[in-house]
Design brief:
Helix content is about 45%, strand content about 20%. By secondary structure, it is of the alpha/beta class. The longest helix is centred in the N-terminal third of the chain and has 30 residues. The protein is elongated. Bound molecules: manganese (II) ion.
C-alpha cells in the first residue's frame, strides 16, 4: 500500500475521492516526516515542485532512517549531484523524462512515415527488381526477401537479382534450406522491371554490376550516404539491413513467416558477427522479435550443413592430389557430378598451414570447373582467375573467392579420358601458377 502527503487541502480531498490514502501535511516539518516513518516503510518518493522543500524532506528522512529508499524529483540537472550527496537513491528530472519520451515518439513517427512512403512507392508499379550486392551474403538476401514480401502486400511482383556467385557453403545452405529463389543478372532483361531497388548496397559499381543509378528508385542500406537523385533512400546506422526491413514489416503490420524470420535473424547475426561488432539497440530489438518467429532447426542446418558422400570423396581426392608451390595449392579432382563440392574442397584446403591461395578443379562432360580461394591480401583471386582463364572460358569473382568454367570444346579430338585429364591438368596448372606469379617446380 502507499500513502500520499500533500500540502494543498483541496487536492487531498480530490485524491481521497479517488480512493487514495492521502493526508494534508508539510514535508519540511519534522513531525510530519516522523509520523511517516513507520517500521514497515520501504520507499519514499519526494515529488513536489518545490526543490527546497524536497531537499529538506530528503535530509529529514535520511537523518532518521538512512536505509529507506528515497527517490527525489530535481528541479534541474545540476541539483542531481547535491541530492545524491544528501543520500537520494535515485533522482528524477521530469524535463529529461519528457524529452526522452518525445524523442522516442519522434523516432517512431519517423520510421512509420518511411515505411508508409515505401509502401506508396511500391504500390505505384507492377514489377520491381530487387538487386542485392555482388556475391550476396545472408543480410542482403534476407533483406531482399523482406522487401519482396512488402511488395507482395500491395500486389506488386518482385524478383531478387544477383551478380557474381553465392560461393560460401553456409550461404548456399541458407538459400537452399530457405528455398529462396534468386535470378542471376545475366538471366534477366532489365526492361522487364519498372524500377530497381538496391538492398545492402547503394553506390553504382561498388559491389554491384550497375554503371549508373538510372531506373534505381529505392536504396535501403546500413552504410554509406543517402543518394539525392533517388526517389527513396533509407540509410541507417545499424548493424544490418535486415534490421531496417524488420522495422518496416513491423510498422506496416505485415506477417513475418518462419522462413522470413529465420532469414532476417541469420542476416543480422552474420553482419554483426554474432553481436560482436557494430551492434545497435535497433539490431537487438529486431532480434528479440525475430527469435520468437524463427526456426531453430533450420538455423542449425545452415550453420552446420551435412556433407554428402560425393562431397567427402571429392575433398578426399583434392587432399590426395594436392600440389603446392610457394604457398599456392592446386588440386585436380578428376571427373565429377557435384560442381558445388569444388568450392567446399577449396574452402577446406585453404585451412592448411602455410597455404594462402587454393584452386581446385574438376570436369564434367561439358566443362572444366575451377573454384579458387585466397586469404593472402596481396592476391586478388578474382583478378587472377579472370586473367588466367577469361580468354578460353568465363571467369571472375572477388578478392577472396572466385570461379571459372572452361568449355571442353578446346580439347576436341582428345578421345581418351586419361589423356584428356592430363591435358586439362597441365593447362589449368600452368595458367594458374603463371598468373599468380610463380614458376612451377617440376
Ligand atoms: Mn549488410
Amino acid at each position: 500500500m502507499f500513502t500520499i502527503i500533500e500540502k494543498n487541502a483541496k487536492r487531498v480531498e480530490t485524491l481521497r475521492d479517488q480512493n487514495f490514502d492521502a493526508y494534508v501535511g508539510d514535508i519540511t516539518k519534522e513531525e510530519v516526516i516522523k509520523n511517516l516513518l513507520t517500521p514497515d516503510l520501504e520507499i519514499v518518493m519526494i515529488l513536489s515542485s518545490d526543490s527546497k522543500a524536497n531537499t529538506t524532506a530528503l535530509s529529514l528522512i535520511k537523518a532518521e532512517k538512512p536505509d529507506v529508499v528515497v527517490i527525489v524529483r530535481a528541479a534541474d540537472p545540476l541539483s542531481k549531484d547535491k541530492l545524491e550527496e544528501l543520500g537520494a537513491d535515485a533522482v528524477v528530472y521530469p524535463t529529461a523524462l519528457i524529452a526522452n519520451a518525445t524523442l522516442h515518439d519522434l523516432r517512431k513517427a519517423e520510421s512509420q512515415r518511411s515505411a508508409n512512403r515505401l509502401h506508396e512507392i511500391l504500390k505505384s508499379m507492377k514489377k520491381l527488381g530487387i538487386l542485392v550486392h555482388d556475391n550476396p551474403d545472408p543480410d542482403s538476401i534476407a533483406s531482399a526477401l523482406a522487401l519482396r514480401q512488402i511488395a507482395a502486400s500491395v500486389d506488386t511482383e518482385a524478383a531478387i537479382i544477383y551478380h557474381g556467385e553465392i560461393s560460401r557453403q553456409e550461404n548456399r545452405a541458407f538459400v537452399n534450406l530457405l528455398h529462396i529463389d534468386l535470378m542471376h543478372v545475366d538471366a534477366i532483361d532489365p526492361r522487364d522491371y519498372d524500377m530497381l531497388a538496391l538492398v545492402d548496397t547503394g553506390t553504382p559499381g561498388a559491389n554491384n554490376p550497375l554503371t549508373s543509378l538510372d531506373n534505381v528508385g529505392i536504396i535501403i542500406d546500413h552504410h554509406g550516404v543517402p543518394e539525392r537523385n533517388v526517389l527513396y533512400t533509407d540509410i541507417r546506422d545499424v548493424g544490418a539491413t535486415a534490421t531496417i526491413l524488420t522495422d518496416y514489416l513491423e510498422e506496416l503490420d505485415i506477417d513475418i513467416d518462419k522462413r522470413l524470420a529465420t532469414a532476417l535473424l541469420y542476416g543480422i547475426r552474420i553482419d554483426t558477427q554474432d553481436y560482436k561488432v557494430h551492434v545497435t539497440p535497433a539490431d537487438l530489438a529486431a532480434t528479440t522479435k525475430l527469435m520468437q518467429l524463427s526456426d531453430r532447426d533450420i538455423l542449425n542446418q545452415i550453420e552446420y550443413p551435412t556433407m554428402s558422400m560425393e562431397t567427402l570423396d571429392i575433398i578426399g581426392e583434392a587432399i590426395h592430389n594436392k600440389h603446392i608451390t610457394a604457398s599456392y595449392l592446386v588440386s585436380c579432382v578428376g571427373f565429377i557430378h557435384n560442381v558445388d563440392a569444388l568450392a567446399q574442397a577449396a574452402d577446406y584446403l585453404l585451412n592448411l598451414e602455410g597455404v594462402t591461395a587454393v584452386a581446385v578443379f574438376g570436369m564434367n562432360d561439358e566443362k572444366i570447373h575451377i573454384s579458387a580461394r585466397s586469404k593472402d591480401v596481396r592476391v586478388n583471386i578474382g583478378a587472377v582467375m579472370s586473367q588466367a582463364f577469361s580468354d578460353i572460358g568465363s571467369a571472375g569473382g572477388h578478392s577472396n573467392a572466385a570461379a571459372a568454367q572452361i568449355p571442353l570444346g578446346i580439347f576436341t579430338g582428345v578421345r581418351d579420358r586419361t589423356t584428356l585429364l592430363h591435358l586439362v591438368e597441365e593447362v589449368v596448372k600452368r595458367r594458374f601458377y603463371a598468373e599468380i606469379g610463380v614458376e612451377r617446380d617440376e
